[in-house]
Inverse folding.
């Protein structure tokens, strides 16, 4: 009997998993973005964060990677979309990432954000965030 199986029935309902989320936090991509003359044709650093709340609360059975989310795919899709074309606005890129990921199976909520960290000397970053819910987290 595994340690986890031995704990079944002991964990109180108040501590049962209520949410499962995958995060890709501040992925640094180089993308041709911006509408000012000095930005056009000069790729900039952009930090992209993706948060996926999953329908499935339990880990894949028997610790099997075949049933898990492919982090490499998630990362590669963000990189692919960031490099797929020139963007005037962060909003356009964030919506493209959002639309791609929202079409995937098993997601119950989604938040995507991007930020330019090198724009203002008096601010850490400037960016955009969109989500499938209001507030800090899905309910």
């Amino acid at each position: 009997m595994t340690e986890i199986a031995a704990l079944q029935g002991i964990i109180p309902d108040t501590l049962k998993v209520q949410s499962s989320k995958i995060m890709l936090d501040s992925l640094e991509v180089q993308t041709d973005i911006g509408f000012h003359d000095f930005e056009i044709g000069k790729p900039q650093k952009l930090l992209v964060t993706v948060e996926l709340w999953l329908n499935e609360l339990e880990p894949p059975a028997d610790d099997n990677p075949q049933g898990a989310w492919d982090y490499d795919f998630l990362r590669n899709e963000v990189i692919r979309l960031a490099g797929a074309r020139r963007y005037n606005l962060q909003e356009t890129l964030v919506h493209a990432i959002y639309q791609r990921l929202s079409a995937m199976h098993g997601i119950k909520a989604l938040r995507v954000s991007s930020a330019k960290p090198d724009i203002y000397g008096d601010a850490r970053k400037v960016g955009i965030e969109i989500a499938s819910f209001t507030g800090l987290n899905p309910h």
About this structure: The radius of gyration is 19 Å. The longest strand covers residues 21-31.
